[in-house]
């Protein structure tokens, strides 16, 4: 009967939008209660934010959004094992850090399956996520094999130096305030654009806007869709404005890419006809075509996959790293000298960047204290799994690892204190910590880039991009925080966000090499 009502409401031409919403609300209420009851009876893993009378999880969600860090700490203290947090993106079983190595090696815990299911990778508009988890792994393969080339460091340098000269000033003068939170986001987009989308779109403002806003829109879409019971999602996504925005962005991506693909195909035909070698483009469009070897490629989904993987994550780390440097000004001169020496010897290459070891340490220390999320290694149980302590993770359970190991005093000395030299000293200390002291190193004590099979393949690219941007800034400008400014890290659920209103003051240096 519900089905009939639903179909009628949608297909009847006289049904108004409001009527449909009323019907949906009633139906969803019923299904939501059923879903809540199901979650509660599904397993015996204790829930940390369960409150009596909180039938619609309002308090649970408020606590999650405002106090996730405290909830995790409480869960670790209260239960000697996994516990469940009810989040606005569904329920997550949080595993304490001592299970990290076990989770890394457990074959029945799967990352792509979680992304596909929980982030709606199969829905139209969410095509970017769909491409990341595509079993063909084309996007992952391109990231692994084509990104992080030495020549790309030079592209980063040309882009960022040009932008800074134009936007932050190329002449000496007084200190000026720049909107760093906004600039960092734009600069990451502009630095990556030639490598992902090629020269035709690299300076297109609409393309740029699309790639930097798609991730946020996608998450808004996920959040909006999550608020609806699973049974209704395949229908309701067509009318949710947040999902419509994602579909519109995918359409825009297709429209923007179409003339580029046509132009390149035409160009190639003409060059071959004239007996010349076709122009070789070094970007993700070409690499996708090469890898596909004649099979069709969804270029829009591919570009949006890069956007969701690379933009927000890299921006967040770059943003916070400069704020941390400004908050610890004693680092500026040694960082500058290190960068100048490395560039003088090796130019803007991977060899040059590998010489910037203090910078590497500084960025890693930022990431230790502010990883993107309080939890990581998100996985779905493909089967019923028995954990080493005997806890059963029923098939379909979504788990994530608590990242608090990164500020555990038994692992990191004086863990709450920012120490820009921490990983530099580890690297040169010769002890067991030297092995995982680099920004791109991962271990069970440092899981900001994940761990195991789905460990982030883009971390080398991100590290290069961030180091080129910071080295350029420090070589060209004096930087400081505005008087009295203390940018805060914002917590929103599991997310840890760099202060979105942060400003920095910059002044052009006398000597720029
Ligand atoms: C500071 C920047 C970045 C951070 C913090 C970051 C973080 C992560 C994390 C935590 C994961 C999940 C790993 C796991 O669950 O074990 C991941 C996966 C992934 N990242 Fe990154 N990432 C960053 C930049 C990038 C960039 C620039 C790219 C591509 C250009 C990229 C591409 C990917 C891909 C394709 C995956 C999925 C891998 C798979 O499923 O096998 N990431 N990243």
From TrEMBL:
<protein>
    <submittedName>
        <fullName>Cytochrome P450</fullName>
    </submittedName>
</protein>
